[in-house]
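Job type: complex structure
Entries:
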Amino acid sequence: MFDIHIGDDGQVKLSGRLDASQAEHAQKALRDLSGPVTADCTELDYVSSAGITVILELHKRVTGSGHELRLVGMNPRVRTVFVYTGLDKVLKIV
Amino acid sequence: MSVKAWTRRFPRDIDALDSIFTFVRGYLEQEGLKGDGAFEVDLVLEELFTNLVRHNRGHQDIEIGMSRANGDLVLTLRDFEVDPFDPTQVARQALEMQNELSPGGRGIILVLRMTKEFRYEYHDRTSTLTARLEWRGEQEA
C-alpha cells in the first residue's frame, strides 16, 4: 500500500511502500510539481530502485526550475537504499 | 528451525509483487525470522524479479524459491524458455560506471550491495539467479 498526499506550498507526504507496482501512480501524482518541494518521508516504509527513479525525476524537474527538493524524516532502512546507490550525495536528505 | 524450502511460480507481471511479498512473509514466519531483515529480502527479490520481467523475453511464469544455508537466506529465481542474459555482468559494469544520476543498473547495484553472493546460471534455456543474504533481523529460538 502506497499513498501520496500533496498539500499546499510544495508539501508532499509519502507513506507506505513505493515499489515498482506503485511507481507509475507516484510519477503521475508528482508530475505537476515544479516549485520548491519538501517531501515528508516519515511514513515511507520501503522504496526500491523504481521508487528512487520517481524521486530523482522530481528532483531534476524541481532543481531544473531553480528550486530545491528536500526529503525529510527518512527511516534508516529507506535511507540505506539512497546511500547504496550514491544518491545521498545528490539529493538533499535531512 | 525448519529446513523446508519454499518455491512458487508468479506471473511475469509487475503487479505480482504484492503476492511475492506475501510469499516472503510466509516463509520468514515459518522460519521464525522477524524484524527489519525482511526489507532487504523484499528489495533483492523485487529488483531481480522486475529485471527478469523487463529484460527477458519469456512467456512463462517465474519461479521463486526461498531456503536457508548456514543461517543465510538463499533466494532463487528461475525463468524458463528464455535466451541467456547475465545480470551479474551488468552489475559489474554498473558498479564500474556508477553515475548517481543515471537510472541504468541502479537496481542491480542494490542487489550487489545487499547480498553476500549473486550468481547466474543458464542451462536448457532456463536462467537461474541465486542471491544469498545474511539475515539481519531477529530469529526465534
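Summary: The radius of gyration of chain A is 12 Å. The CA atoms of residues 6 and 12 of chain A lie 5 Å apart.
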